[in-house]
Amino acid sequence: MFTGIIEEVGIVQSIKRTGESFVLTILANKIMNDINLGDSIAINGVCLTVTTYSTTTFSVDVMPETVKATSLATVTQGSRVNLERAMAAGGRFGGHFVTGHVDGTGTIVAKKKVENAVYYEIETMDKLLKYIILRGSVAVDGISLTVFGVSENSFTLSIIPHTLSETILGMKGKGDVVNIECDMLGKYVGHFLNRNTVEELQKSTGITESFLEENGFK
């Protein structure tokens, strides 16, 4: 579990590809002070497992399914990436619950500076947009953010200077692909409602159309 508060920006030192999978080795600083084999680290919002590490770098395996479902396929040697270690049980909780299980990707279609903020409009799939609501939470490249606006096929974020300077989002612009993880609570509610059809609700509650009509509901 993560919070969406990025700890530092790392640098991809090497990529070793084997078929559709690859091993990422990342140069980092802050998070290396407390790292162990098997630790979960979110890289651009994708939860991955530490397989080896040194004093300055760590490596993770990226599976074919992760390559297909996220933007990690676009990283190259020298790419900057957002890093966050799994949330400590006694730590301060500053963002929102982020699992590191990316729901899909989006594309930045507009970037506009407005006074001290920068507006990003991100276009994405309908299956993700149904969970993105005005003033709700969303994780973009692992960053916990608040939705500023929602349209038919996109959503808008208003990013403050601190976030721009402390994450890779400030380096991205129109045409760049980002990872999106929708709010976990919204997904659970949506899953529950989708599984409980009218017939299932009638069986579990005993409330049917005829019962409602008999009691004055038409």
From TrEMBL:
Lumazine-binding repeats lie at residues 1-96, 97-193. It comes from the Bacteria. Transmembrane segments: none annotated. Keywords: Repeat, Riboflavin biosynthesis, Transferase. It comes from Heyndrickxia camelliae. SUPFAM superfamilies: Riboflavin synthase domain-like. GO terms for molecular function: riboflavin synthase activity. The keyword Cell inner membrane does not apply. PANTHER family: RIBOFLAVIN SYNTHASE (PTHR21098:SF12), RIBOFLAVIN SYNTHASE ALPHA CHAIN (PTHR21098). It catalyses: 2 6,7-dimethyl-8-(1-D-ribityl)lumazine + H(+) = 5-amino-6-(D-ribitylamino)uracil + riboflavin. Pathway: Cofactor biosynthesis; riboflavin biosynthesis; riboflavin from 2-hydroxy-3-oxobutyl phosphate and 5-amino-6-(D-ribitylamino)uracil: step 2/2. Catalyzes the dismutation of two molecules of 6,7-dimethyl-8-ribityllumazine, resulting in the formation of riboflavin and 5-amino-6-(D-ribitylamino)uracil. The lineage of its organism: Bacteria, Bacillati, Bacillota, Bacilli, Bacillales. GO terms for biological process: riboflavin biosynthetic process. Residues 1-96, 97-193 form the Lumazine-binding domain. It is an enzyme of class 2 (transferase). Homotrimer. Its EC number is 2.5.1.9. This is Riboflavin synthase. InterPro entries: ATP_synth_asu-like_sf, Lumazine-bd, Lumazine-bd_dom, Riboflavin_synthase-like_b-brl.
